[in-house]
């Protein structure tokens, strides 16, 4: 019975229902569809038998839909639109656009800049009109977890990886330098100590650390001193919240904390390490073939100095 219903709900049957409802009569629908009214009536009865429902009120001289007929009409129109959308998407993908592209970003990358790029991507007009047919997937990882997603085929592009990969299947380019600043809340004990802070002074207080999200690769630990108490958090945003509450000390990208330092909510301190920064990279997988149009679009944007700078500096809109 289920198979009979599925076979009955063809695009042709749904189009027939739409035409009858739109024209208001079987005769008018038959003329528009190039069929004789009796053939159209027979097709409707076959559809009703397959679904075991009455779609039209036979007591009316007009083509009046029953409640079941109204529901089929609404759902049928939606299904026809989806079929058209799928057909258009397949045609566009045949021109070279990937069906899906996954981008993984390190948690230190500025979300605002990423979404500026996403917005620009969707604003592109492809052949035949409309936005690119590629479905975008965004992932956020931390430190080695960002590399891991790319190396294990879980992402096509990685943004904000801290070091170059040894894999020959990965292309890697520098995105720019990310500078970090050591911060504490104004009421934290380290806030009043003279600078630069020594390793012993820092080790005596809890550090806030963002957990490396790697599951297979060896996790990277940054800034943790031997014997130091640590509060591990899942993201840069939660680390910032912990620092603002005075729950510990730690370093964050200077662009992420600048407004809090300027407002007096955090105090930046120089340490025995001096200026701390690292070169961030963007990388993508080498499949041995020319990149698809979506990947090519992202790589073209990532080659721009202004784009790379924004990805490392536009943290002003970070919300807690």
TrEMBL record:
HTH lysR-type domain location: 9-66
Record has Transcription regulation as a keyword: yes
Matching InterPro entries: LysR_HTH_N, LysR_subst-bd, WH-like_DNA-bd_sf, WH_DNA-bd_sf
Protein keywords: DNA-binding, Transcription, Transcription regulation
Family statement: Belongs to the LysR transcriptional regulatory family.
PANTHER family, per database record: HTH-TYPE TRANSCRIPTIONAL REGULATOR, LYSR FAMILY TRANSCRIPTIONAL REGULATOR
Record protein name field: LysR family transcriptional regulator
Organism: Pelomonas cellulosilytica
């Amino acid at each position: 019975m289920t198979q009979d219903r599925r076979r009955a709900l063809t695009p042709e049957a749904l189009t027939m229902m739409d035409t009858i409802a739109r024209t208001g009569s079987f005769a008018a629908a038959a003329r528009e569809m190039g069929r004789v009214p009796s053939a159209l009536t027979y097709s409707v009865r076959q559809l009703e038998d397959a679904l075991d429902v009455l779609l039209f009120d036979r007591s009316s001289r007009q083509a009046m839909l029953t409640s079941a007929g109204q529901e089929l009409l609404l759902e049928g129109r939606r299904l026809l639109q989806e079929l058209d959308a799928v057909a258009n998407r397949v045609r566009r993908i045949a021109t070279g656009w990937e069906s899906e592209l996954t981008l993984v970003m390190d948690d230190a990358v500025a979300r605002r800049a990423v979404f500026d790029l996403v917005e620009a991507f969707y604003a592109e007009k492809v052949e035949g009109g409309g936005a690119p047919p590629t479905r975008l997937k965004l992932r956020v990882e931390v430190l080695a977890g960002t590399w891991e997603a790319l190396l294990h085929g879980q992402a096509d592009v990685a943004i904000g990886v801290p070091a170059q990969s040894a894999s020959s299947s990965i292309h890697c380019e520098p995105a720019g330098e990310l500078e970090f600043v050591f911060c504490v809340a104004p009421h934290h004990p380290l806030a009043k100590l003279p600078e630069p802070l020594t390793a012993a002074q820092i080790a005596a207080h809890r550090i806030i650390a963002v957990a490396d999200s790697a599951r297979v690769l060896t996790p990277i630990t940054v800034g943790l001193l031997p014997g130091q108490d640590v509060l591990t958090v899942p993201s840069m945003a939660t680390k910032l919240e912990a620092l603002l509450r005075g729950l510990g000390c730690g370093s964050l990208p200077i662009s992420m904390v600048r407004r809090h330092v300027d407002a007096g909510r955090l105090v930046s301190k120089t340490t025995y390490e001096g200026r701390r920064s690292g070169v961030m990279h963007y990388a993508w997988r080498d499949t041995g073939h020319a990149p698809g149009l979506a990947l090519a679009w992202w790589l073209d944007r990532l080659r721009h100095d202004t784009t790379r700078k924004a990805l490392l500096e536009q943290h002003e809109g970070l919300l807690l």
